[in-house]
C-alpha cells in the first residue's frame, strides 16, 4: 500500500511541473493575443508574420507537454482505480493531504483564473478581427459600387446626384 502512495505522490510531483508549464503557456498565449491585437491595429504585417511563425513553432513544442499531462493522468487514474475521464484535478485534490493538496489546489485555482482570462481575451480578439473584416468589406464594397449606374451620391450642398457613367475602377484590359 505504501508503494502505491509513493507512486501517486511521485506522479503528483511530475504533474505539478506539467501544470506549471500549462500556466506559463496560458500566460504566453494571453500576451500573444494582446500583441496580435496591437499589431492588427497598427497594421504591422511584418511583425504579424513573425508572430504567427513563432506561435506555430511554439504550439508544436507544447504538444510534448500535453502528451506528458495525458500520460500522467492515465497513470494517476490507474493508481487511483478510476477511469481516465474521472481523473480530474478536483478528484486528485480530494485524495491528497498536506502540502501536495495545497499545491494542487493552488495550480487548479490559477488555471481556472487564467482560463477565464483567456476566454475573455479570445472573445475580444475575435470581435476585433471580425470588425476589421467587416470594415474592410464595407470599404471594398463602397469603392467598387461608386461607379454603378443608379448609385446616388450627395454633393457638398446636400442635394442628391445620380452617377450613371463615371467609374471608380476601370475593368478593361
Brief write-up:
The protein has 173 residues and is mainly α. 76% of the residues lie in helices and 5% in strands. It has a single domain, classed as Methane Monooxygenase Hydroxylase, Chain G, domain 1 (Up-down Bundle).
Task: Describe what you observe in this structure.
There is one protein chain. This protein is mainly alpha-helical. It has a single domain, classed as Methane Monooxygenase Hydroxylase, Chain G, domain 1. The chain is built from 4 helices and 2 strands; from the N terminus they run ααααββ. The protein has helices at 2-42, 45-79, 89-95, 98-145, and strands at residues 151-154, 160-163. Strands 1-2 form a two-stranded antiparallel ribbon. The relative contact order is 0.10. The model has no long low-confidence stretch (mean pLDDT 84).
Amino acid at each position: 500500500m505504501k508503494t502505491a502512495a509513493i507512486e501517486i505522490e511521485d506522479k503528483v510531483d511530475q504533474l505539478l511541473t506539467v501544470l506549471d508549464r500549462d500556466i506559463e503557456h496560458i500566460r504566453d498565449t494571453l500576451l500573444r493575443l494582446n500583441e496580435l491585437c496591437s499589431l492588427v491595429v497598427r497594421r504591422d504585417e511584418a511583425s504579424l508574420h513573425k508572430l504567427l511563425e513563432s506561435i506555430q513553432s511554439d504550439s508544436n513544442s507544447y504538444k510534448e507537454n500535453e502528451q506528458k499531462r495525458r500520460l500522467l493522468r492515465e497513470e494517476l487514474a490507474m493508481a487511483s482505480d478510476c477511469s481516465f475521464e474521472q481523473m480530474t484535478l478536483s478528484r486528485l485534490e480530494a485524495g491528497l493531504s498536506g502540502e501536495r493538496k495545497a499545491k494542487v489546489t493552488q495550480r487548479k485555482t490559477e488555471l481556472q483564473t487564467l482560463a477565464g482570462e483567456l476566454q475573455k481575451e479570445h472573445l475580444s480578439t475575435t470581435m476585433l478581427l471580425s470588425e476589421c473584416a467587416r470594415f474592410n468589406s464595407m470599404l471594398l464594397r463602397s469603392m467598387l459600387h461608386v461607379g454603378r449606374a443608379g448609385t446616388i451620391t450627395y454633393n457638398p450642398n446636400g442635394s442628391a446626384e445620380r452617377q450613371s457613367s463615371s467609374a471608380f475602377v476601370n475593368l478593361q484590359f
